[in-house]
Fold this protein.
Amino acid sequence: MLWSQNAFRISPLKLCLLACASFLFGISCALPDASKKPCHFKLTLQNFRSILSWTFKNHSVEPTHYTLQSTIMSKNDPLEMVEGCTNIRRRFCDLTDMWDDIGETYIPQVVAFQGNRTLNSCMDEIRLIYNMSLQPPEFEVEAFTDRVKVILRFPAALPSILEELQYSAPLVHKLGLNRNISGNFTYVIDKLIPNTNYCVSVYFKHRDPDVKPVIRCAFLPPGNQSESLESDKAGGIIGLFMLVAVIVTMVLRRTGYICLKTDYPHVLYFKHLPTCTFLELPPLEAMDAVEVILVPRKKKKDYNSEEESDNDQENIPRSNGGGYTMHGLVGRPLDPASMSSATLEDPTQLVLEEVDESEPEAELEPLVAPLECPDSGVYQERSGAYEGRREPPQYSLPGEDSAPEEPEDRRTFNVDLKSVCVRILDEDPDDVPPVLTLPEEMVDLEEPEDLDLPVAFQGGPAPPSAGLSEVDQWAEGVPSEETDSCESEVDVGDGYLAR
Amino acid sequence: MANRYIFQIALLLCITTALAESYTLDQSQQKSSILVCQDLLNQLNGSATDCLKQRMNSKIPEEIKNPQLLQKEDLVLVTYELFQQIFGIFSRNFSRTSWNETIVEKLLMELYQQKNQLKTTVEEIIKETNDIWGNKHILNLKKYYFSLMRYLKANKYSSCAWIIIKTEIIRNFVYLDKLISYFSN
C-alpha cells in the first residue's frame, strides 16, 4: 500500500511539469516565427503612392493569381477584400487610399492560387511609420552659372498620408509638403561656384538605409562664357537697332520729312558776310556817281521856250504823271580825288543839290546826271567836294530821312536813279515830273527832249562805254557859272539826250 | 461674479502661454524621448497577427489624433498625462508575456524622467488655475487609459492582451509625436 502513496505524490509533479511544458508550448505557439512565414511583405512609398508588394518563399508551384485582404488592429473588424487587388496576377497592390493612418497597424493577408486551388496564404503586421520604405520623388536638375534648379515632380492628386509624412519624415531641405502641392515644385540652390560640377540628391529624412538615394549631377557653366554670350547678344541687338535708326533717318531725310532743305537766295545768306559789308553795295551792282553842280544862270521866266531850253544846261523842272521832277538833278562826273572814300568802281556819282530859287543872282545850274542806273536802290550819302556855291540842300528821297547837315558847302550823294523818285511841288499840279524808275520802266517825261540829262533812262543801264565817254565829256566841262556849257548832245535814243 | 471668472481665465491663459513658450525649448528632447520609447516597445516580442480575436475597439480621443482640436497651452498637460498613464500601465503584471524585463525597465525609466521634467510646469499650472479637472482633454485621456486598464484586467493580463495594449501604446506615441511636431511648426 506504501507504493500507491508514493505514486500519488509523483503524479502531481509530473502533471505540473507537463502543464508547464504545455504552457510554454502554447506561448511559443502564440509567438509568431518570422522564419516560418511563407512570404515577405514590403511597403514602399513610390512617387507618393503606398505600394504593397509580396514575395512567397519556397514555393514549388508558381501561383497564377493572388488575392489581398486587410484589416487594422485598432478595431475588431474582419479581413476585407482590397478593391482592385482580387485575383490579380501582379505581386503588388496600391493601397494609398486604404492605408492612410500613419499610427495604425495594418494586417494584410495575401492568398496565392493556382487556378481554383489555394496554394498558400501569408499574413503580417505593418506599421506605416516603421515599415514603409520612403523613396524620394522624381526630380530633375538644371544647371546655371551660379545656381542649380531642382525640379520635383508631384502627382496631380497627393495622398492624405503626405500630411502625416511631413511630420515624421520630412525631406532634407524641409520642403513644405501638403496636399495642395501638385505638378512641379522648383527649388533653387544659389550662391554656387561656376565651372564646377554639383550633384543633387533628394530623399526623406527618415529614409530606409537600404534604399539608396538617386543622385543627379550637373556641371555649372563658366561665368565669363555666359557673360560674354550675353554681352555679344546685347551688342548685336544694339548694333542692329542703330543700323535701323540710321536707315530710317536717311529715308526720312530723302523724303523730306526731316531736315528740309531751303534754298534761299544767295543774297540772303548774311552769315557769310561781315557786318560792315552789310551796308556795302554789291560788287556786281555798279552805282553811278553823279555830281550835281548848280551853275548860276540867268533867271528865266519862261521855262517852256525851246531856245532857252537848248541854250542852257539848266535842269528844267519837269514833272510827269507821278509828280516827280528832275529839277535840281545836275550831274557831272566827279574828280576821284575829290572823293574822300570811294568804294564804287564807277567813279561817277550823282550829286543832288538843291536849287535855291530865292537868290536869282546866283543860281546854280545843275549839271547832270548818272551815266548808269544800277538795279539796286542802295542810297549812300557821301561827303565830298561840292562845287556848288551854296550849301547842299536837305534833299531826301521818299520814305527816307533827310540828309544830315553838311559842314561843307557841297555834298555828294550816290543815287541809283533807277530807283529814285524825286517829287517837286509844282505850281501846276497837273504837271507830272519825270520819274527815275527801274531799268525796266520807261521814264515818262512830257518833254523828254527838254531835259538836260545826258543819259537816257531806258529799260536797261546805259552802256559802259557811253558812260565813260560822257564822263570824259563832263570832266572837261565843269562850268559853275556858265550858262551854256553843253553844246554837244548825244542822242541815246528814245527821246533822251546825252550831253 | 462674471468679472472674477474672466480674471481667472485670463490669468490661466497668460500662465499657460508663458509655460508653453518655455515648453517649446524641450520639444526636441520630448521627440527624442518618444523615439526611444517606440524603439523599446518594438523590441518586445509578440505578433499581433496571432491575437486578432482579442482585439478591442480603440477609443483614443480625437484631440490626440487631430492636433487642430488642441490649443498650444493644452500640449503640456496632454503630454504629462500621457507619460503618466503609460507609466502606470507598464508597471502592472506582464509576467504572462515573454517580454524582456530589462527592456520594460528601460521603458519605465524613460517615461518617469519625461514625467518629472513636466511635473514642475504642470504643478505651476495647477496652482494658478486650481482647476485641472476642468480640462476636458485631460478627462478624455483619463477615460481612455482607464479603458485600457480594464481591458488588461478583463483578459487577465494575457499575452495577446498585452500585445494589443503594446500596439495601442505605440499608436499613442505616434500621435504624441505628431502633436509636438504640429505645435513646434
